[in-house]
Design brief:
Keywords: Metal-binding, Oxidoreductase, Zinc. Belongs to the zinc-containing alcohol dehydrogenase family. This is Zinc-binding dehydrogenase. This protein has about 350 residues and is α/β, with parallel strands linked by helices. It folds into two domains: about 200 residues, Quinone Oxidoreductase, Chain A, domain 1 (Alpha-Beta Complex), CATH 3.90.180; about 130 residues, Rossmann fold, CATH 3.40.50.720. Helix 5 packs across helix 6, helix 5 crosses helix 11 and helix 8 runs parallel beside helix 9.
């Protein structure tokens, strides 16, 4: 069994996983699918993590061994998995900010999702692992975690039936958010991007209007589409600082901007008068919480969210760097990229 280890920009090595011993309250998982997340791409392209490290966290696989004290799971079970677990008792957790918990980021699976074999610690077995239904494939199961993140974002906004929603960025997350906005009864779901292929994908999963930001004035077009009001909800789903300015200029009076992508750590000027005069809100959402996984799974089970329409590429684990290069190139016709184990290694 092998893992893909990130050493440097454009430098991944396939290395043996070695012996992964599990405790009585842990499980050993064979990875079947691991989705390539935008944060994985950001970490690899910009080297924002200490190396060597095995990335990946949108995991679906099969349990090959369960510890003697594990309840509810057994060898042969097909499961999805998320990588961080809050403590549920700190000040942040008590206020409902589970992803801000000091324990959250220090918990992880071993060695990471881009590994053919994964040790699932006890906290993850208890709080972030769930069974994939028999009639659901591993690819859909791997989408539970990113969909849960999107649900966490929608928890931060006060969306009403009939709202106009603008999504800045039509990548994999943007396409999930399009479908959620429709599920929560949006009137118009407007999507902007510079990639025509991704805009067509957004339209295919339910966007009512698309804007090519490389050709059209996003702010003017949004105002035209909404009768001059602007969008009640604006979701930033691409890590481009200038989009915050566009979002604040596009949001309607009384509306909300959701920041759902990491920005560079530098100041971004915005028209701050709108907070007082127009009662706009800007909120952020990072990752997911254990309470988002069941709703995400149910939305997938019931076909409310179509993820197969989004999947464009599948790469073997040994070609992870090529997968990241493709997904990072905004000129390519790629949306959701999945990583699968190498056959016959």
């Amino acid at each position: 069994m092998y893992k893909s280890v990130y050493h440097d920009i454009n430098h991944f090595e396939m290395e043996p996983v070695g012996d992964l011993e599990i405790n009585d309250d842990e499980v050993l998982l064979k990875m079947q699918v691991c989705g390539l997340c935008g944060t994985d791409i950001h970490k690899a392209v910009d080297k924002t993590v200490q190396t060597p490290i095995t990335l990946g966290h949108e995991i679906a696989g099969e349990i090959i061994k369960a510890g003697s004290s594990v309840e509810g799971f057994k060898a042969g079970d097909r499961v999805f998995l998320a990588h961080h677990v809050p403590c549920f008792t700190c000040t942040y957790c008590k206020r409902g900010h589970y992803s801000l918990c000091p324990q959250f980021k220090v918990t992880n699976v071993d060695p990471g999702g881009f590994s053919e074999l994964i040790r699932v610690p006890a906290l993850h077995v208890k709080h972030t692992m769930g069974k994939i239904p028999d009639d659901m494939n591993f690819e859909t199961g791997a989408m539970v975690e990113p969909l849960a993140c999107c649900l966490h974002g929608f928890e931060q906004i006060r969306m009403h039936p009939g709202d106009n929603v603008l999504i800045l960025g039509s990548g994999q997350i943007g396409c999930l958010q399009v479908q959620l906005a429709n599920h929560f009864l949006a009137d118009r779901v407007i999507v902007s991007d510079v990639n025509p292929y991704r805009l067509k994908k957004a339209q295919a999963v339910g966007a009512t209007d698309i804007i090519n930001a490389a050709e059209d004035d996003v702010i003017k077009t949004v105002k035209d589409l909404t009768g001059g009001r602007g969008a009640d909800i604006v979701i930033i789903s691409a890590g481009i600082g200038a989009l915050l300015q566009d979002a604040v200029n596009c949001v309607a009076r009384g509306g909300t901007v959701l920041v759902f992508a990491p920005f560079p750590k530098k100041d971004i000027p915005i028209p701050a008068y709108r907070f007082f005069e127009d009662e706009i809100s800007i909120v952020g959402a990072y990752s997911s919480t254990p309470y988002n996984y069941t709703p995400a799974l149910e939305l997938l089970k019931k076909g409310v969210i179509d993820v197969q329409e989004m999947v464009t590429h599948r790469f073997p684990l040994s070609e992870l760097n090529d997968a990241i290069s493709l997904a990072h190139d905004t000129t390519k016709e790629a949306l959701k990229v999945l990583i699968v184990p190498d056959e016959g290694r």
